[in-house]
């Protein structure tokens, strides 16, 4: 059995935690660090580096027994073996397994021994003997467990002090790094030179030299005479979604310009880009059917694309937004989108929630192949006609806070 609480002094534990936290802060992407609320960052770092001292669960101790040969010389001379027994006492615990290797500031030289099962989280006490009485055996077990508990109690006092300081440690590291990043940004901004254009800048941010006009395809005429409605073909639909996606790259490259923008102002930035491509055919806050939709593109006075813009406020709000969008659509609307702006600290969770919430909507027929890591198309049925299908794409964007 190994000697517990002997591997690392508590001062080394504290130093390792501080250096690990500082190294992780310094490894963060600078733009992301500046754009994430410091309180959210501190909470994540505190949760990650908090030390949870183990707690023994004596109510669930288990025992095992086997006959064995015991060397009664204790290794002093040539071994002499007699019949004896081997008893194993399994003691479950909760908390950080590595803490059994920490040496608390208050400790003795007579440290307890036990095997540590890191995967199953239990200690194994092994007692080998020949003629032990029951009370002596129980005394040995209780004595060992009491020693372990005493060490854990001392570690709890050390860990409580360190855990209480984690927020200030993290905050100081983050503030120092942010100060350096801001200083570097100001130095860069002060240089009297033009910005170097990116290789893909013309494709990403500007409208083509010849503005693109949507040329809708006309549906086949039925046996009954009627005036055909314009339909947005797949390539134009993808182009519109691409323009919307490219606008968010502007936000990523210049986050400070968008950090305080409310929902309606962000929407107008998308409209500017869309009108740059589609000759003023895009409009915002337009009445359509049962309400006002955020982005509407028309052709020949008819709707061919509808989108709703919202800040992320949870699954329930997303479902309400989808219902709102479906309420705007007429039977002829087959290409729609929901644009989500997220200022949450863990964007991955938002994406997972968006996908699961949309798939669970009663009008969702099936999920299509994702367009990107943040753009998810689905086939939806029309609210009043289950046989009428439309494409609804949910696009999520991580915007600065």
Give a structural overview.
By secondary structure, the protein is an alpha+beta fold. It has 9 helices and 15 strands. A 7-stranded mixed sheet has the order 9-10-11-12-15-14-13, with helices on both faces. Strands 1, 3, 4, 5, 7 and 8 form a 6-stranded antiparallel sheet that branches. It is elongated, with a radius of gyration of 33 Å. About 7% of the residues have low confidence.
Q: How is this structure best summarized?
A:
This protein is α+β, with helices and mostly antiparallel strands and 401 residues long. The chain has helices at 10-27, 30-35, 38-49, 134-190, 201-205, 234-253, 263-278, 315-328, 347-359; strands at residues 2-3, 8-9, 55-56, 62-71, 81-94, 102-103, 113-117, 122-129, 282-288, 291-299, 302-311, 335-342, 364-367, 375-382, 385-398.
Number of H/I helices? 9
Number of strands: 15
In which range does the helix fraction lie?
Answer: 40-55%
Unreliable residue runs:
200-211, 221-228, 283-292
| Inertia-based shape | elongated
The biggest beta sheet is recorded as: 7 strands, mixed
| Gap from first CA to last CA | 53 Å
Structural category = alpha+beta
| Averaged pLDDT | 80
- Tell me the number of structural domains: 2
The Rg value, from CA coordinates, equals 33 Å
**Topology as a string of helices (H) and strands (E):** EEHHHEEEEEEHHHHEEEHEHEEE
How are the strands of the largest sheet arranged? 9-10-11-12-15-14-13
Q: What percent strand? A: 25-35%
């Amino acid at each position: 059995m190994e000697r517990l609480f002997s591997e690392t002094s508590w001062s080394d534990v504290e130093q390792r935690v501080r250096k690990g936290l500082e190294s992780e802060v310094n490894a963060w992407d600078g733009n992301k660090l500046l754009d994430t609320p410091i309180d959210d960052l501190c909470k994540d770092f505190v949760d990650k580096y908090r030390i949870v001292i183990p707690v023994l669960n004596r109510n669930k101790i288990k025992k095992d027994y086997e006959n064995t040969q015991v060397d009664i010389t204790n290794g002093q001379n040539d071994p002499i073996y007699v019949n004896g027994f081997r008893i194993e006492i399994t003691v479950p615990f909760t908390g950080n397994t590595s803490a059994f290797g920490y040496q608390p500031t208050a400790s003795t030289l007579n440290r307890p021994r036990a095997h540590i099962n890191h995967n199953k989280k239990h200690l194994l006490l092994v007692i080998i003997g020949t003629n032990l009485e029951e009370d002596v055996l129980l005394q040995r077990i209780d004595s060992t467990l009491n020693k372990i508990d005493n060490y854990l109690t001392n570690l709890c006092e050390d860990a409580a002090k360190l855990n209480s300081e984690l927020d200030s440690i993290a905050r100081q590291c983050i503030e120092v790094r942010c100060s350096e990043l801001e200083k570097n940004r100001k130095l860069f901004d002060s240089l009297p030179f033009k910005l170097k254009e990116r290789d893909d800048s013309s494709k990403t941010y500007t409208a083509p030299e010849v503005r693109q006009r949507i040329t809708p395809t006309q549906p086949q005429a039925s046996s009954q005479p009627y005036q055909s409605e314009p339909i947005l073909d797949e390539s134009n639909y993808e182009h519109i979604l691409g323009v919307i996606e490219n606008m968010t790259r502007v936000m990523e490259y210049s986050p400070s310009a968008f950090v305080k923008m409310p929902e309606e102002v962000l929407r107008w930035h998308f409209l500017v880009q869309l009108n740059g491509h589609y000759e003023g055919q895009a409009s915002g806050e337009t009445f359509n059917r049962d309400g006002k939709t955020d982005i509407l593109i028309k052709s020949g006075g008819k709707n061919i694309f509808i989108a709703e813009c919202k800040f992320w406020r949870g699954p329930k709000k997303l479902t309400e937004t989808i219902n709102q969008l479906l309420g705007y659509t007429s039977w002829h609307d087959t290409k729609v989108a929901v644009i989500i702006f997220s200022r949450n600290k863990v964007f991955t969770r938002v994406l997972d929630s968006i996908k699961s919430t949309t798939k669970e909507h009663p009008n969702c027929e099936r999920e299509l192949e994702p367009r990107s890591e943040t753009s998810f198309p689905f086939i939806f049925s029309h609210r009043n006609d289950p046989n009428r299908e439309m494409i609804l794409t949910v696009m999520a964007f991580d915007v600065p806070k």
